[in-house]
Amino acid sequence: MKKTEDPPITLGSVQLGDRFIWRVEEALGPEYAGKSSVPFEGKVLEVIGFEPKFFNSVVLDYGDGEMSLHLEWVEKALSLSPVAGRTNAEAEVRDSDPQQQQTLGEPGTPIRPITNKDDRRFLFRFLQSRPRTWTPEMRLRAYLSIGRPPEPRLLTSSNIRCALSVFDCASMMKLLATEGASLNVSAGLTALAKPLATPAEFALAPIVNALARTVDFWHTRRSAIHLDTVSLKAYLDVLFLVENKLTDVEPGSDRQADADRCRAPLLRLLTFAILETASARNTDLILNLLKCIEFSLMYSLV
After folding, report:
1. 136-145 vs 117-129: helix axis angle to the nearest 10?
2. CA separation for the pair 171, 286 (Å, rounded)
3. Opening angle at CA 244, ends 242 and 245, nearest 5
4. CA distance 197 to 18
5. Is 22 buried (19+), middle (13-18) or exposed (0-12) by CB count in 10 A?
């Protein structure tokens, strides 16, 4: 049977592999003439991927690195200064399988970040040009290994739970979120809650610290977006499960040091919960929050 290729990947009128010369005066208007100090001015740019949820949704390679531009700017630049042909890298992506070149690890094992710039670029091209290649769990691991937000269709709690270790689920929560009018991270938080609800013992401090760094980012970002109701409910569930696990630690046991390291980040998690719940003004969420606060005070967790 003849192997069928995936159809071309497009966003608007822009296709993966399109190439053009970037001149800011042409793309943005004469008022920008002489004002551009970007390193890709006058260079050939190649479309290597799309991230539709961002304003600058077209990912481009300019030879010395990667950057992103708004779709309308790219469409205008393509209409004015197109470059014919495709690079050999596009053919290489079609004929190669980076799973043979990069050890992404089995689903559920710790993710090893890919640090080599060329390897990251190659894998991103591959994922964008082969949307049906690999299982959802492996595609999810691949995106996270190169520090890219996964495709929204991959962000289900079952995919995340199968693909990631409990620590990776907590530490990569920023990449597991989708943004609209509010922040939706319910799938990642629900996946994180599953192992926390089991009797299994594991170090809590790395997980709590990783999650605290994420909520610090959400809280302090310039254009603050609140968690949606479903995500906030899942967050409060995770918080209560963490507290519940900490109460199981016997004083003076081997796990006591790990529990002690959870105190400061747990306070940050609780503070974030209070601020988000106050903004949500939802009675059920307030009751869940009060349960978390009562538990923390009763067992002197913070």
Report:
1. 150
2. 26
3. 65
4. 48
5. buried
Instruction: Name the helix (H) or strand (E) containing 220.
Output: helix 205-220
If you write DSSP's letter for every residue of 62-104 in order, what string do you get? -SS-EEEE-HHHHHHHHHHSEE-S--HHHHHHHH--TTTTS--
Measured distance CA(138)–CA(143) in Å, rounded: 9
- Which bin fits 58, alpha (ψ -120 to 50), beta or left (φ > 0)? beta
DSSP 12: T
Looking at the DSSP bridge assignments, the partners of residue 60 are 47, 67
Of the listed ranges 58-72, 84-98, 140-154, the one predicted with least confidence: 84-98
Helices (H) and strands (E) in the chain — how many of each?
13, 9
Supply the pTM of this predicted model: 0.76
